[in-house]
Amino acid sequence: MIAITFLVTFFLSYIWHMLGVTIGYHRLLAHRSFKCPKAVEYFWVTGGYLAWQSSPLWWATIHRAHHRYTDRARDPHSPLHGIKHAYLGWFFRPTYPEYINPEIQAKDLVKDPLYRFLEQGGNWHKGHLLSMFIGMTFRLLLLLMFGWEIALGSLLAGLTVQQVPFLLNVVCHIRRLGYKNFATSDESVNVWWVAVLTCGEGWHNNHHAFPGSARSGFNRFEFDPSWLLIRFMKLIGLVDWMHEESIHSIFKGDGHQLEVRS
Ligand SMILES: [Zn+2]
Ligand SMILES: [Zn+2]
Q1: What would the 3-class secondary structure string for 47-106 be?
Q2: Which ligand has the minimum distance to the alpha carbon of residue 64?
Q3: How far is the CA of 207 from the centre of ligand 2 (A)?
Q4: Which long-range CB contacts under 8 A does 229-235 form with residues at least 24 apart?
Q5: How far is the CA of 188 from the centre of ligand 1 (A)?
Q6: Which residues pair with 259 in a beta bridge?
Q7: CB 174 within 8 A of CB 208
């Protein structure tokens, strides 16, 4: 019984935290690929924050820079600059480099007082520590209210989800580890097992070809649960608009070639 409570908590927490990163941090805040009420935004962003993704404003700013400078000198975490740096090294910088400025590159998010507070004035170390503190406090509350099985399930799910975007940044930018549907000018590739771990984010070459799309899986076998859930939220009125219809993909038969008309 104890094991079941732990496993169910781990599984449900993993899904919430991972979708918090993919739907909340990534497709909503960083790319604005859909619009929704603030309550829906906060629900998903909280899921990502409690998996120690650090400040949402910081995350989105860095991610936008990743798309602007993909696999070039200014890319914050390209594996071309070393695997260790791409995995975690970049995360420990004290602050933004001079060419990345949230006031300019994430004006839409700077307006939100909660996101500004969590960003701690651009001091990365303070932002990460605050995120760590709030994440641990949340598990402590779970422990006091519901016991150790639920607290431990939540803690381990959060720690696991914390690592997965770091992993994606490395694996999905090493050409030999996946395949490309689109001849993008960067190293991005689609990696099926990363897509499984990330509820659809592993279709990363598709994403770099169409960063503004709420949908990342284009082929029939490219299962993208994050997009299916965004589509479902639109169906039931929790999403007002999503950017997906502008992509008209033609499946060309061999499973690896897509011709795209905009
Ligand atoms: Zn990328
Ligand atoms: Zn992106």
Answers
A1: HHHCCCCCCHHHHHHHHHHHHHCCCCCCCCCCHHHCHHHHHCHHHHCCCCCCCCCHHHHC
A2: 2
A3: 7
A4: 229/19, 229/23, 230/23, 230/27, 230/33, 230/34, 233/36, 233/40, 234/34
A5: 6
A6: 250
A7: no
Q: What rounded mean pLDDT belongs to the chain?
A: 93
Taking the CA of 33 as reference, the closest ligand is 2
What is the model's pLDDT at position 244? Answer: 79
* Distance of alpha carbon 112 from alpha carbon 211, whole angstroms: 23
Q: Is the pLDDT of residue 109 over 60?
A: yes
Q: Tell me whether residue 87 is exposed, middle or buried, using C-beta atoms within 10 angstroms of its C-beta: 0 to 12, 13 to 18, 19 or more.
A: middle
| C-alpha 252 chain-centroid distance | 29
With tokens 């050409």, the residue in question is 175
How far apart are alpha carbons 204 and 216 in whole angstroms?
7
**d(C-alpha 253, C-alpha 158), whole Å:** 40
